[in-house]
């Protein structure tokens, strides 16, 4: 029987029948996620429970836990998890009076890593609340109506099913959804630009490609990226093996991401808990693709000492510079760049506008941008529509970076203005009021691949984004004479000023012709104070000049001249009255 993704409408059935008087809609995910994971594992283990129990009883008093674990895994048909209790979710229903005690025995029968995940889910707190309201039995009863066996739902469809549940749960809790959930339309747009140009390299059976997210949340970005490759890019061709990796700081989001890996047959150890900035759980690992939506405008003060110390290490991740402590987006970007494969990697990362232009010449932000652009890693920046994310309506951008640009793109940066490529959402969810449709994604992909300037696409050389900040000194004067010291004119600090000039500018000519005529003729440039600034003032490059209406046209519009008769509105009224009373 062919696999088919289950209908997620069961969520609303459970909410109506069991949970609606006890739990708020924004608590729905916290309650259901662990029970769906349990049901999937329960269905997977059903054919092997008897063998696992028999093996456990035979060896539990003879072997240490670490030696018993691989034997029990083998008994569970080499699954990464097993349960040594005498219960399944369905047999728990045979004893309603002792549902609480038996359910806890059932949970304690799982292998250690599974119990650890449920600890991160804070399942014990949920169980207590369910028990207080007499709902644990009813919830298990409803969950058991789902057939999540591998025969009914294969790993791929289980992943899609779980992702849909995550989406619905996050939309029900849209005040915090943006912390761990990036809208699918934004991820699909990023996926199209990252993966579609690599179709020839990807469409080979047997090759392995990796996707990594250092702020993976519930894992949606890497999972949608993987599915995009398999279902879109390689739909009608040979398919590669895609391995996904992620690290997450939030324990509940981590538990969801790791649970999905477990119940879909992925490598659960590739999802790891921790702060990517201070505890790189994939140290030394390199990836083919990286995707992320790091938090906007979130302080890194807690990580400050660690980051600043690593920035002093020539081989560290943050040697290019550190941004202001109020926003760590560029730290995550540097972290991702440190994990590029020497033979070529591609990165897609969502930011707000701040990393494009914040910071003056010589600042950490400017120095990081300079490092990225001078290394020719910045390939493209795409301006997204506003009101696209659940917890913010501000302007956002997708950065595409690579250390293996095609020849025609080398030494250049492409900018795509997709800020109008959207339609109003049928239903607003938090701040999300716009949706990106497939046709919009196709339009962006066409702009990216055709690589030609037009209304929505600009292409600039790398040097375009850099500039020198020159310090202009004017001399101190006393009684009209320049004050000298040790044979040198002394600068007047009150008259000190700066000028910003392009990298390809003839500085001395500019100073002589544009600056010097307007200041003290004995002024000079203090080259020791020269600093370089890199900034991407995205919106200014797509600014459209509005046609100014002429004064005559404005006058004619105000007084109402008829272009056919040349008469003003008042003259027309007088002429009409004359005709009536003549």
Structure characterization notes:
This protein has 582 residues and is an alpha/beta fold. It contains 24 helices and 19 strands. A 9-stranded mixed sheet has the order 3-2-1-4-5-7-6-8-11, with helices on both faces. Strands 12, 17, 18 and 19 form a 4-stranded antiparallel sheet that branches. A two-stranded antiparallel ribbon has the order 9-10. Helix 15 links the parallel strand 2 and strand 3 (271-273). The protein is globular and about 100 Å long. Mean pLDDT is 90; it is low at 175-180. Helices cover 41% and strands 16% of the residues. The chain folds into 4 domains: 10-155, no CATH class; 174-451, Vaccinia Virus protein VP39 (Rossmann fold), CATH 3.40.50; 465-540, no CATH class; 551-581, no CATH class.
Task: Give the SSE layout.
Layout lengths: L9 H10 L8 H18 L3 H11 L5 H11 L13 H4 L6 H10 L3 H9 L2 H10 L3 H8 L11 H18 L4 H4 L3 H12 L3 H4 L5 E6 L6 H14 L7 E8 L2 H13 L7 E3 L15 E4 L11 H8 L17 H9 L8 E7 L1 H4 L6 H11 L3 E6 L12 E7 L9 E6 L5 E7 L2 E4 L2 H13 L6 E5 L4 E8 L3 E2 L2 E2 L1 E2 L2 E2 L7 E6 L4 H9 L8 E2 L5 E4 L3 H4 L9 H9 L9 H13 L1
Parallel strand pairs: 1-2, 1-4, 2-3, 4-5, 6-8
Antiparallel strand pairs: 5-7, 6-7, 8-11, 9-10, 12-17, 12-18, 12-19, 13-14, 15-16
Helix pairs in contact: 2-15, 3-4, 12-14, 12-20
């Amino acid at each position: 029987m062919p696999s088919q993704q289950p209908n997620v409408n069961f969520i609303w059935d459970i909410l109506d029948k069991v949970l609606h008087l006890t739990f708020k809609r924004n608590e729905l995910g916290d309650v259901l996620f662990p029970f769906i994971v349990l049901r999937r594992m329960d269905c997977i283990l059903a054919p092997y429970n008897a063998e696992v129990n028999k093996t456990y009883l035979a060896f539990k008093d003879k072997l240490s836990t670490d030696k018993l674990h691989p034997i029990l895994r083998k008994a569970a048909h080499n699954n990464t998890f097993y349960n040594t209790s005498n219960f399944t979710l369905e047999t728990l229903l045979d004893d309603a009076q002792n549902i609480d005690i038996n359910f806890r025995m059932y949970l304690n029968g799982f292998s250690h890593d599974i119990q650890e995940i449920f600890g991160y889910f804070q399942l014990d707190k949920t169980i207590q609340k369910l028990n207080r309201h007499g709902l644990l039995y009813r919830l298990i009863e409803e969950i058991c109506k789902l057939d999540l066996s591998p025969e009914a739902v294969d790993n791929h469809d289980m992943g899609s099913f779980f992702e849909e549940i995550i989406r619905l749960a996050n939309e029900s809790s849209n005040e915090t959804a943006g912390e761990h959930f990036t809208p699918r339309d934004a991820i699909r747009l990023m996926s199209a630009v990252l993966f579609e140009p690599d179709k020839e390299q990807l469409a080979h059976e047997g090759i392995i490609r990796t996707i990594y997210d250092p702020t993976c949340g519930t894992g949606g970005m890497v999972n949608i990226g993987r599915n995009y490759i398999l279902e879109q890019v390689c739909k009608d061709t040979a398919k590669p093996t895609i391995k996904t990796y992620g690290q997450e700081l939030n324990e509940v989001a981590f538990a969801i991401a790791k649970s999905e890996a477990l119940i879909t047959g992925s490598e659960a150890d590739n999802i790891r808990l921790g702060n990517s900035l201070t505890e790189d759980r994939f140290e030394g690992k390199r990836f083919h693709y990286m995707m992320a939506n790091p938090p906007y405008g979130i302080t890194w003060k807690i990580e400050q000492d660690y980051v600043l110390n690593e920035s002093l290490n020539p081989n560290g991740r943050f040697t290019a510079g550190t941004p202001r402590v109020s926003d760590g987006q560029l730290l995550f970007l540097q972290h991702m760049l440190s994990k590029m494969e020497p033979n070529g990697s591609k990165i897609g990362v969502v930011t707000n506008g701040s990393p494009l232009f914040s910071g003056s010449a010589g600042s950490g932000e400017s120095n990081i941008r300079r490092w990225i652009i001078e290394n020719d890693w910045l390939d493209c920046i795409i301006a997204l529509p506003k009101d696209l994310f659940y917890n913010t309506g501000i302007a956002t951008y997708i950065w595409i970076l690579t250390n293996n640009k095609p020849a025609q793109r080398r030494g250049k940066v492409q900018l795509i203005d997709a800020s109008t490529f959207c339609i109003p959402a049928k239903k607003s969810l938090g701040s999300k009021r716009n949706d990106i449709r497939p046709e919009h994604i196709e339009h962006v992909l066409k702009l990216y691949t055709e690589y030609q300037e037009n209304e929505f696409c600009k292409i600039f050389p790398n040097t375009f984004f850099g500039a020198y900040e020159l310090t202009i000194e004017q001399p101190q004067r006393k009684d009209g004479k320049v004050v000298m010291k040790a044979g040198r004119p002394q600068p007047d600090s009150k008259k000190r000023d700066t000028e910003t000039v392009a990298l390809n500018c003839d500085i001395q000519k500019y100073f002589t012709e544009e600056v010097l005529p307007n200041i003290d003729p004995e002024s000079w440039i203090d080259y020791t104070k020269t600093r370089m600034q890199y900034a991407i003032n995205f919106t200014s490059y797509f600014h459209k000049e509005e046609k100014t209406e002429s004064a005559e046209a404005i006058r004619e519009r105000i007084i109402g001249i008829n272009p056919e008769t040349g008469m003003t509105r008042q003259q027309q009224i007088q002429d009409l009255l004359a005709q009536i009373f003549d």
